[in-house]
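Changelog excerpt

This revision adds worked examples to the README so contributors can see how folded entries look when concatenated. The first example is reproduced verbatim below.
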Amino acid sequence: MKMKIEIVSYRYALADKDRLNLTKDIINTSISDLLLFSGHTIGDVKDIEVLKTLIENTRIEVILELKDIKSDMIKNCLYHVTKGKLKSLNTNQIFTESSEIESNYELAARLLHEFETNRIIKIKGISILIVQCGEINILKNIQNENNRVEFRLPDERSLNDRFINLMKKTNIILNPIHTPMGNQGKLQKRREYFSKNKRYYFSASNTKECSNNLELKSLQYAYFNGKMLTEIDKHISDDSIRRIYEIQ
């Protein structure tokens, strides 16, 4: 089944009120089937409540992120727009750095639980998994094997099996990112891994903190079966860049 997927990146320094207004406008005018925004789409929790009243497009599916929910313990919360309604997915980013997850079986188990229970949505029978920013570090590269990619805790068989089974059931992986991550060589291998076996992978990041360069290559990626995809359309403004892909 054909589907148009649109990925959106913002300037890092874009003010909260501008993020709210631009997000509303893009949602309401998009003709895509699925819209992925970069991380920190909406800055403040009060703007989530406002956005709920502004959505008019009832046919689009949207994944976006709230930066600040006014909690010392929780941040980077995921939301899903479906049938014109903005709903919390009741999940948030679990970790950011590889050092947090290295040999940490409990944290890996917690992330897999989030994946299995709160991070999968179904659209037109397609299974879509959301991986938030640095959670891509659930994968690791084996440097002396040409940066081959595997699950970060392969010796923990039960966790590894859960992860592999999850990948088998997933058709599309969405990866909202806050700012471009380092070592794109290793990350390219991970994007290829996520998209192998005829899966799709899409990511969208804000610009770097000190930059307004919306055409930086590392802001947006789209892969299928280990290969980069070419967009069918692109829109760029002073504050955002949008690329549209068609999949089937």
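The second example, added in the same revision:
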Amino acid sequence: MSGEAAVLGDSVAAELRTSIVDQTDAPGSTITEAAVAVRFGVARPTARMAIDRLVAEGLLRREPHHAAKVPVLSREDITDLYDSRATVEGAAVGSLARSGTIPAEALAAHRAIQAMHAGDTFAHEDIAFHRALVNGQPSGRLARMHGLLMGEIELCIGQVQSYSLLDPQEIAAQHQAILTAVIAGDAAQSEQLTRAHISYSRDRLLAHYDSTHPSPR
């Protein structure tokens, strides 16, 4: 595939990623090569490349000989993903605190969330904030581990916010506490606050899941 086609494939993947995080393509939606090709005005090989990228990232799942689908996450998926995320991000932010510096991208995302009001969606800013913190610390291995989780993390963040489970000002306050600990160089506090912040979102999503998936009596 030519460089131009690869760039186009990346662009389609980015737009499709946004529509999945925003729930335009809701959990359970089927994403076919033909539909993506028509939707974005690209050739089938380019559509296939974009879908393959999102399958690799975890934003789509595909069984052999079947079209890709937006995952419907189970309670176990949510718990495992958030607990894994808390472990990796907690360690990463703790590592970042040893430098006492905040990546510019994280600060920009934080300020954008601070300017929002109840009811505003901030999934993309939230994702940018967390990704920037992890990528700003010195361990390439931690960043790669986080990258492996990032697709499903984006899926979860999109679901949490599509259900209006989080208030941007409340999340901004939690982010500010993390940033304050990082600037102070307090690695233990930075890690603890990051874990608590992620657990808070996990618990809100699980509570919503339980309310919409009642256990059989």
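Reviewer comment on example two: The domain at 3-69 is CATH 1.10.10.10 (Arc Repressor Mutant, subunit A). The longest helix spans residues 187-212.
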